[in-house]
Structure formats: C-alpha cells, structure tokens
Amino acid sequence: MPDLIIESQKPPVGQASVTSPWDGREIDEVALAGAEHVEDALAAAYALFRDRTQWLSVARRVDILQKAADLVESRLEELSVLAASEGGKPYTDSRVEVIRAIDGLKLCAETLRGDSGEVIPIATTPATEGRIAITHKEPVGVVVAVSAFNHPLNLIVHQVGPAVASGCPVIVKPAADTPLSCLALVRILHEAGLPREWCQAMVTENNDVATQLVTDRRVGFFSFIGSARVGWMLRSRLAPGTRCALEHGGAAPLILAPPYDFDAAVAAVNKGGFYHAGQVCVSVQRVFAVGEDAQRFAGALAKSAAALTVGPPEDPDTDVGPLIRPAELERVADWVEQAITAGAKCVTGGKKISACAYEPTVLLNPPQDARVSCEEIFGPVVCVYRCDNIDEAIDQANALPVAFQAAVFTDDIDTALDISRRLDASAVMINDHTAFRDDVMPFAGLRESGLGIGGIPYTMHDMQIDRLTVIKSAGIKR
Predict the structure, then answer these.
(1) Which residues contact 89 (CB under 8 A, 6 or more apart)?
(2) Which of 57, 176, 354, 402 is most deeply buried (CB count within 10 A of its CB)?
C-alpha cells in the first residue's frame, strides 16, 4: 500500500481501495490523510519557503527535472499500464500520455533555463538619474495542486513540474480515483534528487480535509483541475492573497464550413469526440453543419464510431475504454435518453455495454435546451446539429456560459479566419479537432470554464513573482 508522501510522522487515518474502472478489481490501496497530516504538510512546506537559505538553485532544479524525465522514460511501459489500469484510458493513449509527461518535464527544465528578468527603463528624468532597475524571478510561495482523474500522470506534470521548476514547495492532492500515477511521479522526483519536503502528496480522507488544505493562509498559489462547481466554490474560500488557476470543462463546438475535407473532418471528430470515452475537457461535443450536410456527416461519423473497439484499457487493441465510475455511466445514459425523448435521433450507440462502458454515440439534432446540448457530457457522445447558415452555427456555438477550445473545418482561408475571429474560445483549431493540445501552448477556459492560463511556460509565470532591485550609484551614467 503506497504510504503518505508528506512530512509527518503520524500514521494514516485509514486507507482506500483503488479499483479498475473497467471491471472493479482492486489495483492497490492508498493511505488517507486527515486534518493533522494537512497541518504537518503545510507547516513543513511553509517553513521551507520562508527560509531562503534552503531554496534550491536554478541549476539544481534543472538537473532534477532532467533526471526525472529520464527516469519516467526508463519506466515508460510500467507507467503506461498503471495509468491505463487506474484511469481507464486505453493503453495506446496512456502510452502517449506518458511520452507527453516526459516532454513536459523537459519543457519545465528548458523554460527554466531561459527564465530571465528584465532591465526596467528608469533614469529617464532628473529625479531618477544614477539608478538602474532589474528584475529576477522568485517563487510565489507554497503551491497546492488539486488534480483530476482523466490524465492521471500528465496533469500532475502540468501542476507539479512548474512548481518544482519555479522553486515553490508543492503539495499535490490527486483524484481519489487515480492517485497511483501521481504517487509514482512524486517518488520519481525524489529519486531524481528533489528533497522530500519540496514535493508532498496526499489523498485526503474527505472533502473537508481537502478544503482545509486549499484554503489555508499559508498557500501562495492554488492550482485546480476539475469540475466548475468545485473549482469556483474553492476559489471563493481562498485566503486573502492566494493566487489561483482554475481549469474546468466546456462543451466544445466544431463548425463545418463548405468546402472542407469531409473524410478528414469525420476522422478528426471521431478521434476528438471519443478519445478517452469523451472524458476530456476540450472533447468535441457539438458539431454544427449547414443544411443536409448535417445528416450526411452524422451518418459517416456514426459508421466510424461503430467501428471503434470498446474494451479493457490495458488491451492495445482497445479504442475506447470505460467511464471512470458506474455513476457517470448512468448519468450519460440518462442524458442521452432525455435527448432522444425530446426529439434527437440516435444515429448510432445509445446503449450501455456493461456497468462501466457505454457505446460511442452520435445524436442528430438534439434540442438546444437538452443537457447534451448545454452541459458538458464528459462521455462518448457527439451531437450533430443542422443549421440554416454559418451565422446560425456561430450563434449556437457561442450560446453557452462556457468557452474553451473550438474548431472549424474549411478549405477557404477567409472563411476560416472569419469564423475563428467570431467564435467564443480561447483557442480555435482550423482543420483539426478541438482536443488538440501541445504542452507549450496557452490552455485556458474562459467565463465559467476556468480562470488563468495553463500550459507549462504560462503556469511557471503564474507561480513566480518579478523581484525588483533598484541600484543607485554614482558610477551609473547614461
């Protein structure tokens, strides 16, 4: 049973079973932290931050991150199977996730190597002559990271990696469904030379203990990936002065604007909509097409969706794995049934395969007020809508209080740029699906979809302050 990775000598308050979302078998058990463990962890992290003599040099942080990347690479197969087993993402995609995690750790080191301050242009008036002003980067404080289940290794890299690179002590709470990949990464960082107290990890016994961790006044930065309901609630309870970044979900729109490559669009939506059973915050959810093109596209997408293999995530031949919990499967099934009852046509899917798996589903023209149309599905369901024209498609795409990534397929560059400009989104993919991401990109939910900018370089920026030094000297002349 993995122990608590925190600076506390107190025994765990209990243990929890980590089970496979595919068949419910127990994979492992994890220790649970209580209120006293949270206090010990925060006290250790805050004392470390307040004692500048213990801060890690840039050179040492670079070395730790590079060694950690090498260690992850050496355990690629082990970590891929672990992530697939606990999270349900198929092995092939979990392997890609681990490769991304390796690149993410390297990107943290590379960004840190070029992380410079600047010279501020003062001495431009008689009152400021004889002075020079320069900035350099310093850590913002203790980072508390709360993560989600759907990318159990790479999300931790996106939260913990920048904290280590920025010189911040970090305490991470992984999702209770998928803690094992997180604990494995934290141990790898320690093995790479990061002192244990600089990165602590815990699974809390309940939400009250987690809230205690997040809202403590010693927290300098709060990083959250998860549901909007929880994220905005926790933000409202942060201590004065705590910075934060929230990454929630959306209901990503994709617009088909003729002329476009029909086959390429079908393949892209098939991947972007059903990847990880749709459990991705920027998964393709709503596809808007003009006139009869909607029915044609829905039919072709349904054919490709029906050909996907739904199975155990550890199997290399599996395309779509399970939903994370049976309750989520029941929710998705209920939403689909509501939409069909209200008039949507189920072109393919719409049925439970087991207690954990749901058929890849394509719905045609669900009502705009159906839950599948106006809330994040987070399941293997793609909705296709017929619109009279592109203006109507854009209006419907922009009709929700969430906004994250969007996409447009078209061969006309003027149309592509016009639609891209008019869509409510932080990023628009042209001739690609909405779930495309490179870890160097800015990644940000707008409105109810989040706060702040993700992406490793941007997260590092948020986790640092610009420390200004002004030097007055008779030897300074301009």
Answers:
(1) 83, 97, 150, 151, 276, 279, 313, 321
(2) 402
